Amino acid sequence: MFFHRLNDRHSLRQLSVSDAEELFAVVDANRAHLRCWLPWLDRTHSIADSRQFVADVVQQAENNHNIQAAILLDGRIVGVASYHRIDWLNRSTSLGYWLAAAHEGQGLVTASCQVLVDHAFAALNLHRLAITCATANTRSRAIPPRLGFIHEGRQRDAEWLYDHFVDHEVYVQLQPEWEARIIKRLANLFPPDVTKK
């Protein structure tokens, strides 16, 4: 099962069926906040809906098609970061994420997504990761550039959001670009000692 601890308070853990009640409670408490940009809120009416969702994603994870990870703060679910279905033939997938309103602005999503990016390229040997965000969703659109994703363009009327279409901005990172960023990060952590002769 996928698990990664980022610090004493913040970790990522693959969702399990036992998370359904807590996951539904977080979704339900943040319904108006999440409904602005996520199209599935009106299909999540009960704990049973969350239980079915988690059962489905657990099965997909067992078949190596995705990872849906709970974003945990002090052991409690505050959001989700995930791969959408992995395309093994083309070694690609996309990332999705959401966070409870009270925990925005703390860097939790950026740190969580960085873990999934590193895992996708280093452990899964994927070649291409994408993130798509509604054009007007400025909070979500701020995350891909922080992670080294490159803006590839706009998809017009890409998603039906309850009563209207929204455009999507597409951001992509390729494995060689990630490798170059890793080398740069390491170089910044361990700069050469110019005092030695």
Explain how this protein is built:
This protein is globular. The protein has helices at 20-29, 31-35, 47-62, 108-123, 138-141, 143-146, 175-189; strands at residues 3-5, 10-14, 68-73, 76-83, 92-99, 128-134, 150-160, 165-174. It is built from seven helices and eight strands. The model has no long low-confidence stretch (mean pLDDT 94). The relative contact order is 0.12. Helix 1 (20-29) crosses helix 3 (47-62). Strands 1-2-3-4-5-6-8-7 form an eight-stranded mixed sheet, with helices on both faces. By secondary structure, it is of the alpha+beta class.
What is the strand and helix layout of this fold?
Elements: E1 3-5, E2 10-14, H1 20-29, H2 31-35, H3 47-62, E3 68-73, E4 76-83, E5 92-99, H4 108-123, E6 128-134, H5 138-141, H6 143-146, E7 150-160, E8 165-174, H7 175-189
Parallel strand pairs: 5-6
Antiparallel strand pairs: 1-2, 2-3, 3-4, 4-5, 6-8, 7-8
Helix pairs in contact: 1-3
Instruction: State the helical fraction.
Output: 25-40%
CA radius of gyration is 18 Å
N-to-C SSE series? Answer: EEHHHEEEHEHHEEH
Question: What separation lies between the terminal Cα atoms?
Answer: 49 Å
Structural class: alpha+beta
Order of strands across the widest beta sheet? 1-2-3-4-5-6-8-7
Globular, elongated, flat, extended or rod-shaped: what is the shape? globular
Strand coverage percent: 25-35%
| Low-pLDDT ranges | none
Descriptive labels:
197 residues; globular; 8 strands; single chain; alpha+beta
